[in-house]
Amino acid sequence: MIGPTLLALTIILAVAKFGGSLAIRFGQPAVLGELVAGLVIGNLTLLGWHGLDFIEGDATLGALAQLGVILLLFEVGLESTPRQMLSVGLPALAVACLGVAAPFALGYGVSAWLQPGATWYAHLFIGATLTATSVGITARVLRDMGQADSPEARIILGAAVVDDVLGLVILAAVSGIIAAADHGVPAKVGPVLWIIAKAVGFLIGSMVLGVWLAPRLFKTAARLRGGGVLLGIALAFCFILAWAADAVGLAPIVGAFAAGLILEAAHYKPFTERGEYALEQLIHPVTAFLAPVFFVLMGFSVDLGTFADPHALLLAGALTLAAVVGKQVAGLGAFGPGVRRLPVGIGMIPRGEVGLIFANIGLGLHIAGVPILDTSAFTAIVIVVMLTTMVTPPVLSWSFRRSRPALPEDRAEAIKESVEPE
Amino acid sequence: MIGPTLLALTIILAVAKFGGSLAIRFGQPAVLGELVAGLVIGNLTLLGWHGLDFIEGDATLGALAQLGVILLLFEVGLESTPRQMLSVGLPALAVACLGVAAPFALGYGVSAWLQPGATWYAHLFIGATLTATSVGITARVLRDMGQADSPEARIILGAAVVDDVLGLVILAAVSGIIAAADHGVPAKVGPVLWIIAKAVGFLIGSMVLGVWLAPRLFKTAARLRGGGVLLGIALAFCFILAWAADAVGLAPIVGAFAAGLILEAAHYKPFTERGEYALEQLIHPVTAFLAPVFFVLMGFSVDLGTFADPHALLLAGALTLAAVVGKQVAGLGAFGPGVRRLPVGIGMIPRGEVGLIFANIGLGLHIAGVPILDTSAFTAIVIVVMLTTMVTPPVLSWSFRRSRPALPEDRAEAIKESVEPE
């Protein structure tokens, strides 16, 4: 029966757009509004109204949300190329590594301090969750501010890309350790190295194979006639890599991100030359439809009832502090002529969708039937994501304004395009 | 587990684009190639290979296909407006009515003649299936030929729109009669009239309410900020009407089509004025992704094993003849200065996606546990759809070329735009 799904999609899209708009009016990214909108309609049960309970159990919605986040990571991956990743300078690499190590250590410490009863797997997972940086939110905030040309912005963008990959490798490693523990196998260095090797091997392998294959695939596909060939083949390329990542034990989003990195405008030039739209323009409506389903459902699953638990609130506050301080440590890695470290550190703060994806995966991980994250830990992470997402736009714009005036719009536009090749 | 779905989507998109391209190379519409591609991969079991059997049972794919066809009908509906439907002249109305009555009677007769053992519900359903005309295929063929300005083309397009609505009403009525019979209630005129009243009432009601509501809804939505507002609100509008149609017992596609008819470019002018893409451009990538899932899965469900049954082949041949002759009768309704009846009749032949949707619904209808359509009747209908779709482009272009040269491209383009307002 598709009926309930249609009603649920109507509600989700309506509240997503309303919430997103409200967030933007308050100077926040739209994704924050979608989360809050989902949180609101998901907690109407607290008022005794259960009319929306059918949304939670709908399997089709869950699948659509998963496709949405897969396509979102594909889209984020499209913003960069493997060459750009290799050409990011040493400062970006240093920022990325510090930006992973410091929040991980701080997150682990906070979790161990405030959750003495939890296993070290929980600490590990919470530490891992804090390592993520949201390329999407960071890039969009910089673009909105017309600051995409500053050296700080370039370091942030480069580091965020590296950070995303490092974060995904950590996610794979941590998930693997937990899965090994679930099967009663003690965590050894060997399997962890194997997981890391598999993750890095998959990324490098898919890159090398993909970079070799993609131009040939699209050159062949360009001979196909009819509408939607570019979109169809690009989606197939994304889905097969997402499937392959899943098949070797990684998250499907890792593959989707790799697929996005691999594809470059040059690959589908034959399509754009004959008047078809660019791939980003074709993918974007699909993501604009499906990604909000992910974020609204994510908010939907936050149980505000746990806010009554002062422990969850305390954990959320301490983790947010760890998340912010950890990325300020990352800012110390930024060097170069005239580079200010404060904006770099602040630009790395937002966890955004990647943090939510981590939290969501954490909900699905069990050891001997006991979930890794309990409801209050999950709620705390979602609050961390919301706070770090919310705090960044105003503070980042303040840190830039402090010393340098914003560029005129057309200049910023030209530079934005040089930073993000189409 | 999203893994198998991702692999299935990869395969479906790849074969859809390959099949579509091949069809176009042979001068056929892409939809035919998608059907055949699905048919091919769905019948690899005949060669003893069962590696793709996981596609058939995937619930997520089924839901995506349903969303695909809902969005396709929404997109087709967008091509017309309620005013255009009211302003189609008497000839279009006459063609539409004859184009429904004649194939219905002929289809019923052929079914009763060749399937003496089947119930009269089966004859009824097969007759109903033959009434459909595919607006999408018809319009696309006329556009490809640069003949969208001929009086014949205008009559065809107008009649096809009316025909679509009549067909959907008939589908609702026939489905209702069969559902009543399934509950052991004998078919009476009262309930049938009630179903027709409900269908017409829903269409007129949703039109009147929608035409009143749509400008206000989009004017309010235009105040919302952020990306994807137009797409999100339009999809919500489509889904809520599809849900409402489903809720009053009609097919969801009826509501989606009504939603498309209601929405006009004027409604979302505030969005396009601020530089957003037109709704068609935003919806199209979503449909281009999901609609092929519907057509490939439709082909997938055709069992070529039944071709061994000469009875199914005989039925398919006779029904195709009835389908073609029935629409030639419709052509007789075309009058006006210099109007040639042959191209009108030929232009009405393709059953396309609407016929397939009918067949698909027929598969799901049962009386006392026995499906209305047996496998060979279903296969026969799919073959009819394939043949009528396949025969139209070459014959239609021949019938136009017979007397009048094709217009120069720019002229045809200008006229196309006047026929189909953006």
Short description:
Helices cover 75% and strands 1% of the residues of chain A. The first copy, chain A, has helices at residues 3-25, 30-42, 53-56, 59-78, 82-87, 90-114, 120-131, 135-144, 151-182, 189-221, 229-247, 252-262, 269-273, 279-300, 310-331, 341-347, 352-364, 375-401, 409-419, and strands spanning 366-367, 370-371.
Structural overview:
The structure is a homodimer of 422-residue chains. With 422 residues, the first copy, chain A, is mainly alpha-helical. In chain A, helix 6 packs across helix 9 (151-182). The first copy, chain A, has 19 helices and two strands. Chain A has helices at 3-25, 30-42, 53-56, 59-78, 82-87, 90-114, 120-131, 135-144, 151-182, 189-221, 229-247, 252-262, 269-273, 279-300, 310-331, 341-347, 352-364, 375-401, 409-419, and strands at residues 366-367, 370-371. In chain A, strand 1 (366-367) and strand 2 form a beta hairpin. Chain A has a single domain (79-289, 314-419), classed as Na+/H+ antiporter like fold. At the A-B interface, helix 1, helix 4, helix 11 and helix 14 of A face helix 1, helix 4, helix 11 and helix 14 of B.
